[in-house]
Amino acid sequence: MKKLSLLLLLLISTASFSQTQLKSFDELMTALKAGKNVKAVIYYAKCKLFSDGIEETEVPNAIGGMSFNTYEYFDTSVFKGKRPSFVTTSETVLINHRFYGYVNNYVKLRVNIDNSIEITAQYLKNRKFSSKYKVVMDETFKGAINDGTNEAGIYLYAE
């Protein structure tokens, strides 16, 4: 009886923490509309890096992740058909960088209806005696949703 109870507990706890990979914009929107927790895992080396609008030849071999805690969806009709539909989310966290010291690490994801994703990453430094920030690092990464068959570096998961 103890073994059966332990097995049931294990199955229930595993089921409650299971994740499903989202392989398209449509799957992402279905998960968000259903109120599911969505997370992104980003393999930056599998994306294109742009600094000051110029594509860099070297991309850092770094991995990042974030949740879609707050997001907004914009249908193409919002822009009178001049821009495709997309969903966007962002997050800012305070970090201690070895060169810049304490900075706000701002990351924004824009997931487009064609499964492409643009990532904005900035380090924002507080200016002394001011409420304004100085941008000390500004990078844009371009990639796509990994659909299980491509080599894209951005994985989306729903819980």
Could you explain how this protein is built, in words?
- This protein has 159 residues and is of the alpha+beta class.
- 15% of the residues lie in helices and 48% in strands.
- The chain is built from two helices and eleven strands.
- The protein has helices spanning 2-16, 25-33, and strands spanning 20-22, 38-43, 48-51, 54-55, 63-67, 71-74, 86-97, 101-112, 116-126, 133-144, 154-158.
- The chain has a seven-stranded antiparallel sheet with strand order 4-3-10-9-8-7-6, with no helix packed on it.
- A hairpin with a 3-residue loop joins β7 (86-97) and β8 (101-112).
- The radius of gyration is 19 Å and the shape is globular.
Main sheet properties: 7 strands, antiparallel
Sequence of strands across the biggest β-sheet = 4-3-10-9-8-7-6
Supply the number of helical segments: 2
- Overall strand count: 11
Relative helix content: 10-25%
Helix/strand order: HEHEEEEEEEEEE
Unreliable stretches (pLDDT < 50, length at least 5) are 4-15
Outline: globular
Structural class: alpha+beta
Rg is 19 Å
How much of the sequence lies in strands comes to over 45%
End-to-end CA span = 31 Å
Mean pLDDT: 90
